[in-house]
Automatic annotation (TrEMBL):
Residues 255-279 are annotated as: Disordered. Residues 207-243 form a coiled coil. The gene is Hip1r. Residues 7-248 form the I/LWEQ domain. This is HIP1R protein. PROSITE patterns: I_LWEQ (PS50945).
């Protein structure tokens, strides 16, 4: 019991209420995200023009389409969960069914929270991009995170669903649609970034031989610095993922009040991630 995840330290009879609250909270977060995007669209039309307005509208429209796809996925997932409970509880109450299947219920709660959090993060990243205080890369990462969290929700819902369930088929179709809309956000963000960011003219015709040599050496220094920084960030990413998998393994080991901690990773066999090929 001491090894159970503290975030899920709730009484089993409360699990059913938690599922409904989290799904309602997720739906509310998505509705709020759609409203905020509409407000950003109006603000962008008033405060920008030309290429900037075109880029902002394209990005915000793709974000709106993604939010609508997530909203439909959450609604379909809720219908599937109701179908699962009705077909599996027998003479038991809904609360008793959730309590009996506590690990499955906890998985639904966790997945729902992840979807709502991802939607909120995407809107905040879009807001910063429109205001030119954020990075386009944040939008791309948030889109990937949303695709991952919706896949988690589908997997959690699919565990106890009948293979012939129409709601399951609809949920899988909604998941594919979310992935497509997330890819559209990434594409519109990348194209917008290319349009907005200023490009150097690369005109060196007026430089002297000494000036050219100095610029060349300074550029070489920057390249080496960036390569070293890239290697360090890749090592850091590997360590973060390793810790994430270790924690996830420990959570998955929790069953029937007992826990089997995940084995600690062996440091002796860790390898540095390969460096990207130089152009």
């Amino acid at each position: 019991q001491e090894l159970r995840p503290k975030s899920l330290d709730i009484k089993q009879e409360e699990l059913g209420d938690m599922v409904e609250k989290e799904m309602a909270s997720t739906s509310e977060a998505i509705e709020d995200a759609v409203r905020r995007i509409e407000e950003m669209m109006s603000q962008a039309r008033n405060e920008s023009s030309g290429v900037k307005l075109e880029v902002n509208e394209r990005i915000l429209n793709s974000c709106t389409d993604l939010m609508k796809a997530i909203r439909l996925l959450v609604m379909t997932s809720t219908n599937l969960q109701k179908e699962i409970v009705e077909s599996g509880r027998g003479a038991a109450t809904t609360q008793e069914f959730y309590a009996k299947n506590s690990r499955w219920t906890e998985g639904l709660i966790s997945a729902s929270k992840a979807v709502g959090w991802g939607a909120t993060q995407l809107v905040e990243a879009a807001d910063r991009v429109v205001l030119h205080t954020g990075k386009y890369e944040e939008l791309i990462v948030c889109s990937h995170e949303i695709a991952a969290s919706t896949a988690q929700l589908v997997a959690a819902s699919k565990v106890k669903a009948e293979k012939s369930s129409r709601n399951l088929g609809r949920l899988q179709e909604c998941s594919r649609n979310v992935n497509e809309m997330a890819a559209n956000v990434v594409a519109s963000t990348k194209s917008g970034q290319e349009q907005i960011e200023e490009k150097d003219t690369m005109d060196f015709s007026g430089m002297s031989l000494i000036k050219l040599k100095k610029e060349e050496m300074e550029t070489q220094v920057k390249v080496l610095e960036l390569e070293k920084r890239l290697e360090g960030e890749r090592v850091r990413l590997g360590e973060l993922r390793k810790q994430h998998y270790a924690l996830a393994g420990a959570y998955d080991a929790v069953e029937d009040g007992e826990a089997k901690p995940a084995p600690a990773p062996r440091r002796g066999i860790l390898k540095k991630p390969p460096l990207a090929q130089k152009p």
